[in-house]
Amino acid sequence: MAERIVVTGSAGMLGGALARHLVGQGRDVVGVDLRLSPDPGYGWRQRIGDIRDTALLTDAMAGADAVVHCAGALPSYPAAQIHDVIVHGTRSVLEAGRRAGVERVVHISSTAVYGLPKLVPTPEDHPREPVDPYTRAKSAAEEVAEEYRADGMCVPILRPKTFVGPGRMGLFAMLFEWAEEGRNFPVLGDGNTRNQMLAIEDLVEAVVGVLSAPADVAGDTYNIAAAEFGTVRENFQAVLDAAGHGKRVVSLPARPALAGLRILERMRLSPVYGRLAHKLLDDSYVSIDKARDRLGFRPRLSNREAILRTYEWWQEQRQARSSGRAGRTSRDAWRQGALSLAKVFF
Question: What pTM was computed for the model?
Answer without folding.
Answer: 0.89
